[in-house]
Amino acid sequence: DPAVIYDMGGKFDKSFNEAAYNGAERWKKEAGGKGYLDFEISNEAQREQAMRRMADKGANPIVGVGFAQASTVEKVAKEFGKQQFAIIDSVVKLPNVESVVFKEHEGSFLVGMMAALASKSGKVGFVGGMDIPLIRKFQCGYEQGAKYANPKVEVTSNMTGTTPAAWNDPTRGGELAKAQFAKGVDVVFAAAGGTGVGVYQAAKDGGKLAIGVDSNQNHLHPGVMLTSMVKRVDVAVYNLFKKTNPGQLTVLGLKEGGVDYALDKHNEKLVSADMKKKVDAAKADIIAGKIKVADYMADNSCKY
Amino acid sequence: MSATSAGGLPPAVQMRGICKRFGAVQANRDVNLTVAAGTAHGIVGENGAGKSTLMSILYGFYQAEAGSIAIEGREVQIPGSREAIALGIGMVHQHFMLVEPLSALDNIMLGAEPDWRLGAARAVVREKLEALMRDTGLQVRLDLAVEELPVGERQRLEILKALYRGARILILDEPTAVLTPQETEQLFVTLRRLRAQGTTLLLITHKLKEIMALCDAVTVMRQGAVVLDTPIADTSLDALAEAMVGRRVNLGRDAGAAARAPGATLLAVQGLRWADEMGVPRLADVSLDLKAGEIVGIAGVSGNGQTELLAALSGMLAPQAGQITLGGERFDAPGRWLDPTAARRLKLAHVPEDRHRCGMVLKMSAWESAVLGYHRLKRFVGAGGWMKQRAMREATAQWMEAYDVRPRNALLQSSKFSGGNQQKLVLAREALAPETPPQVLLVGQPTRGVDIGAIEFIHGRLRAMRDAGGAVLVVSSELDEILALADRVLVMDRGRIAGELAIEDCTEAALGRLMAGATAREAA
Amino acid sequence: MSRPVELPRWADIGLLPLINLAMALAVSAIVVAVIGLDPVQVITQLVKGAFGTRSGLGYTLYYATTFTFTGLAVAVAFHGGLFNIGGEGQAMVGGLGVAAVSLAFGNSLPAVLMLPLAVVAAMAFGAAWAAVPAALQAWRGSHVVITTIMFNFIASALLAWLLVNHLKAPGGMTVETVAFADSAHLPGMHELLAGLGIEWPRTPLNASLLLALAAAVGVWALLWRLRAGYELRAVGHSPEAAHYAGIHPRRQVMLAMLISGALAGMVGVNELSGVQHKLLLDFVAGAGFTGIAVSLIGRNHPLGIVLAALLFGALYQGGAELAFEVPGFSRDMVTTLQGLIVLFSGAMARVAAPALSRVVMALQPRAAVAAGAAHG
Amino acid sequence: MDDTLIFLGGLLASTLRVSTPLILCALAGLLSERSGVIDLGLEGKMLLSAFAAGAVGAFTGSWPLALAAALMVGVALSMLHGYACVSHTGDQVVMGMALTMIAAGLTIVLGIAWFKQGGQTPALPDAVRLGPQGVALGEALKAIPVIGPVLGLGLAGHNALVYLALALVPGVWWLLYRTRLGLRLRATGDNPAMVDAAGLSVLRLRYGALAMNGVLCALAGAYLVLAQNANFVPHMTAGRGYMALAAMIFGKWRPVAALWACLLFGFLDAVAIRLQGVALPAALGGGQVPVQAIQALPYVLTVVLLAGFIGHARAPAALGTPYLKER
Ligand SMILES: Nc1ncnc2c1ncn2[C@@H]1O[C@H](COP(=O)(O)OP(=O)(O)OP(=O)(O)O)[C@@H](O)[C@H]1O
Ligand SMILES: Nc1ncnc2c1ncn2[C@@H]1O[C@H](COP(=O)(O)OP(=O)(O)OP(=O)(O)O)[C@@H](O)[C@H]1O
Ligand SMILES: [Mg+2]
Ligand SMILES: [Mg+2]
To answer: What atom of ligand 1 comes closest to residue B56's alpha carbon?
Structure first.
């Protein structure tokens, strides 16, 4: 059986981990009767125990969701050389590990455009979770997109914190969003895991727009959620469960359908036809390579 | 019953067959007490005789296991202080019952506020109190916080508090223990005036003279039971003392003691000064010498610096000025002062006043308490600080044997021994633990709360140490004890040595005058 | 109001703690039932998970190692009359010490020097973190309960700051240092036993277990066999009596807290040198607070603490297994149980005493009467 | 200029929002400690009440019921506190630890069992939340020249609990210093034997103080769930109970001083939130503002105060000692 290990925050974080959960569930439905193992990490000491336990039980492949599991995957995969492992959002160079990373900057570019197009004040905001290169990557792509749609747009960015607690601090997220709203920001993009819930709530309370992340979060507050930058962790997990490519690095971008913006019945009223046209055009350009979105993690700086 | 009993009135208080025990201690056994209305009634007895317990039962603090109470002729139940107050009983406790940060006024009205708004309540109470203060002569500064008031004023405050609540029966538990003689005199004037106004007084005191001076009748308690109940006119100071202790009090001293002249000075103290955090001087220029082969007694009302003197001499407290010479070493204050370890090294032993708090560690076993202070001796501690428990236990067993500590169980928890036996164990330690016998022995309240047999035993041991060439300093608030033991008596008053008397010159009157603040020449 | 009830020693030391523990377990069972699980199944699974396999036992003992350290830390301070709630922070800083020396010297020192150095650093750093509250208590009278709580928060901020800004592995996204060099790895129990020819599954259990047992013996010897411990207990029971005996209460307060902090710091050895081989943020994971519960039910005695640590180790490991096996069970149930144990064995420890005393009296009327007579 | 004013207004608003649970909890701790009962369980009481509000809010969709549930849980925990520590003379410090541990575990256990969202409760609809008050007033205030934006943004448009917390500060002050009950409570914390001798029930006074303490903790918990956020999140109190305790000590057990301490701590928190990731000016050596230092500041300040460097804080004399009376 395959196995998935969610990171802290848990499988119902409405965001990153929940996407992985949805992928696993889809696989289960299609696999007909077969099950899978899963576990939610709730403290550091558990990571290794959980993964080793899965390996002991013969689970194959074992998917670690989240960059924080990289070192654990590396350690356990070495011990259990005959089993397949996978890591999402990080790279582990071992023959029995497949690494899956996303081009978050491409998806963020699209929602950045939408933010700039939807903003009446010409000010858009970004609330990141933990201050790490991965989140800077979101931020950088978002900025590029916003500037692409409206060169005069002002982008205000904040990070919630520097420790993993920043993924799950809705109160702080709400405060950051409110501070941005006070400055005139009227669309905010949260790439902050569970912290985002506080950001969206603040947007709702303040009558502003918000953009979700990872999962399609449009349904959380219809009329408030402008869109979501979906990162198809569900697809990644689904594919990994079906078949792994050990030792490979899989990169999922717009072209592969790994990232995208979300449009559904919850936000169709907020997205004008013109907006959609512009964003879809940019999407096609990125896929075609006509627009190059700078990747923060390429050289740890946001140059564009 | 009593001479001043007004015609026909029922007794203010009638307690019958009161029994109360605390664990193994029978604090009150079948106590009967009748107090005529409008009289002052004294209650005396040794420490632990059960006086406070009896009064606490009357005030509803404790519940008696058996017996009945009638107030002003009516049978009553007193389950709590509230009911006692409602019955017109007021109590001034042995220890102050005041909230220090609150003002005197707030302290008085607490629990009896006439209005739920403090402002309104204060106005009403202030008016009543001013009248009350005029009537009784009890003057208290109502707006100062209690912590700023001197003890005498706090004592008046306590009485005022009881009277404000409408007390017709006023219990005073050792009200003069902390008062100066002048304050005591002032208090007695007030008490007489209250009695004249019809208040019934119940006075507990250890000072028999006060009983004779104020009371109309007196009850003597011993070991929880009443042993004497008599109008004051039918008794005398000596008779009361005898009743308290249970046999003729032998004020006489042991025969062999006197004549021998004291030897070399073993401990010399000059110019000790120490003031507490509030700046009140507790030791004021105290100088004294202790010579080989003598027992020096320190007499005085407790709280006049005796505790601090013992602490300073034993190294537990560093005075702010003064010097001490012990075993050929000199210590100066401030700067280098004796510490308890050095004191023991220089053969000074110390039986502390407060054996419960200082003399032993109640939670530890007897052998652990028995080596306290001597736990660093070579014969008790081996290499690397390893304690030789066998040696400690064996030594403890020997000391218990020598000083007749009962039960002879070195493993028993220290708190499980009775007061007298605890005291004997501490004394045994101080006499026997040092490698060579102590040269100087400081003893605080050697027989407080100790029974007669043990008193005799302890006195005998102290004399034996003296006869062996030691210098003994005894601090005691019991004059009898001083008179029985000492070769020379120093009297302390407000932190200073008020005077010195050779034992031949000691009469209770002379000592009493010194304790009350007279100079030595006036006293003699 | 109730008055203190005297119980025979066997009942006081043996029976009452068991009754309190049983009450805590009973309430936990109710909670388990309320969330729709079968208490009996949960308990059997828990015991099986903790002791049923060698690997489970390994994890149990590994957790117990940490709890022994923090439990002993609480107990030593307690005997000195101090309630040290700062085990959590002291453990964090102890781990910082381990990481500091392991990262600085791991590549240059051989294991025989490196590992003792790590142990010393853990103890020194933990002790140093306890020293400030201790000194404030001794000289300024600042209540050690409050200051150690504050120091827990300060420690966690300090650790986060150092890790994020100075110690984080360059380029990595997780807040952790690079791995320690091999010489700074404490051998795992499986390696040690393999050396003796015994096969043992690979678990986090490592040589720290031996250190913890040594620490327990050491604490016992200190408290009940050494002069220093005698003085410490004297101060804990009665500062006045200690002062009378020429013992310096301040020095003892410092000593108690330094030893306590050093023991808490040892958590860093078990968790970092022994298992993680790197410094990360949350490696203490509440063990400092668990130490309070461990010490409470261990009656502040090293033997009791080792047993209580084993109990809590079993709860943690069994809880983890349950979380794997039983859907809907989360390890927070163990936190709840831990809280209930602190409640019943600590705050409400004497609530059952009057009833127990009546039962004991009823069971042995003659003995009780005789004891009463001996007193009177 | 305008930006600065808006920043200040936002900061003021944020300070008030962040301080509110601190103020409520500090007052709760103050009432209990003034009566002589140490409360290290503020964190736990707040957390469990927050969960109650979140869970009942999610089940019933009614904010009065959610609030009532929080109050019931808060008061029940306080009564348990009283049963253990007042009636049975249990150790008050240990009790606080126990309450906090139980709350930390139980909220997640029940949350997972009932809502299956990793311990969170579902997001509450607007009807279950406490909305802003005085928005119009805020707009009016903004019209004032210069300081208008600061006042309008900062003071108006908060929810009712923010204003209630602020109003409770003089309320508690008045209770303590202007009423009979307050006098009795203060006396109980200082000398329970005297209160007993005055014919009052120490037991009843301490239970009374604890009941108020429970209500205030519950309000703080409810605020977190019904006002500041829209659901319960595990560990969402995040040490606020201890911070409130620190503020209470920092305020030397006095309501108004405690308010200032709470506002200071809240202000520091609001500043820390805004300074996250902000670069220090080059004059200060560049690099990032050490946010952790700002976060640790309240705790450091409290230790400094306790060490007596800022004048001595005098705790109620009988704090922590159970009142035992032989009968
Ligand atoms: N609360 C208590 N618990 C246990 N024993 C007590 C308690 N109160 C008093 N006792 C014991 O009861 C006995 C009588 O005590 P009580 O205080 O009535 O004596 P007293 O005559 O007032 O003594 P003193 O002259 O020292 O004030 C003593 O043996 C005392 O130790
Ligand atoms: N306040 C108190 N609380 C609890 N126990 C007490 C209290 N006072 C005394 N005791 C205990 O009561 C017992 C008797 O104490 P007390 O000091 O009255 O000695 P005693 O019975 O008079 O002994 P002895 O006759 O040897 O002097 C001892 O076990 C003592 O520990
Ligand atoms: Mg008395
Ligand atoms: Mg006696």
So the answer is: 18
Residues β-bridged to residue B173: B204
B310-B311-B316-B322 Cα dihedral, nearest 10 degrees: -90
For testing the chain C interface, which of B372, B378, B379, B414 should be mutated: the one with the most C CBs within 10 Å?
B372
A143: confidence class by pLDDT, cuts 50, 70, 90: very high
**Is this prediction's pTM over 0.80?**
yes
Q: Does residue B176 contact residue B95 with C-beta atoms inside 8 Å?
A: no
φ, ψ at B333 (rounded to 5°): -115, 145
Q: Which domain holds residue B390?
A: 292-523
Angle CA(A37)–CA(A39)–CA(A41) in degrees, nearest 5? Answer: 160
Please answer whether residues D157 and B87 qualify as being in contact, where contact means their C-beta atoms are separated by less than 8 angstroms. no
Which residues, in sequence order, are bridge partners of residue C226? B386
Domain residue spans of chain D? 8-309
Torsion region of C63: left, alpha or beta (phi above 0 gives left; psi -120 to 50 gives alpha): alpha
Does residue B105 contact residue B122 with C-beta atoms inside 8 Å? Answer: yes
CATH of domain C59-309: 1.10.3470
Q: Which residue type occupies B314?
A: S
Could you tell me if the CB of B327 is within 6 A of ligand 2? no
Strands A37-40 and A62-65, by their bridges, are: unpaired
* CB count in 10 Å sphere of residue A299: 9
Ligand 2 neighbourhood includes B50 CB (under 6 angstroms): no
Nearest atom in ligand 1 to the alpha carbon of residue B49 is 21
Residue with tokens 């109990």: C311
In a domain, B162, yes or no: no
Any ligand 2 atom below 6 A from CB of B449:
yes
Total domains in chain B come to 2
Candidate of B22, B56, B206, B227 to mutate for ligand 1, largest count of ligand atoms within 8 Å of Cβ: B22
Contact of A118 with A275, CB cutoff 8 Å: yes
Sequence-distant (≥ 6) Cβ neighbours of residue C192 within 8 angstroms: C207
- What lies within 8 Å, CB to CB, of C168 at 6+ separation is C175, C176, C177
Please check whether residue D185 is in contact with residue B97, taking contact to mean a CB–CB distance below 8 angstroms. Answer: no
Residues of chain C contacting residue A43, judged by C-beta atoms under 8 Å apart: 282, 285
Residue C369's pLDDT band, with cuts at 50, 70 and 90, is very low
Indicate whether B53 belongs to any domain.
yes
Sign of the torsion formed by the C-alpha atoms of D104, D105, D106 and D112: positive
Atom 23, ligand 2: residue with shortest CA distance: B418
- Token readout for D30 is 């103050």
Tell me the pLDDT band of C374, cut-offs 50, 70 and 90: very low
Angle at C254 between CA C269 and CA C151, to 5 degrees: 60
Give the architecture (CATH level 2) of D8-309.
Answer: Orthogonal Bundle (1.10)
CB-based neighbours (< 5 A) of ligand 3, an ion: B 52, 94
Range ranked top by mean pLDDT from A240-244, B514-518, C111-115: C111-115
Taking the CA of residue C130 and the nearest CA in chain A, the distance in Å comes to 25
Residues of D in contact with A170 (CB under 8 A): 229, 231, 233, 236
Residue where the block lists tokens 């220093």: C228
DSSP H or E segment with residue B40: strand B40-45
Give mean pLDDT, residues B349-361.
87
List of chain D residues whose C-beta atoms are within 8 Å of the C-beta of residue C145: 40, 93
Cα dihedral across residues D111, D116, D119, D124: positive or negative: negative
**How many residue contacts between C and D have a Cβ separation below 8 Å?**
165
Nearest to B394 by CA among B432, B364, B349: B432
Contacts of C178 (CB under 8 A, 6+ apart): C103, C169, C278
Q: Are C287 and C267 in contact (CB under 8 A)?
A: yes
What H or E segment, with its residue span, contains residue C113?
A: helix C111-135
Average pLDDT over residues C179-189: 93
- Contact of chains C and B by CB distance (3 or more pairs under 8 angstroms): yes
> In angstroms, rounded to a whole number, what is the distance separating the alpha carbons of residues D12 and B350?
64
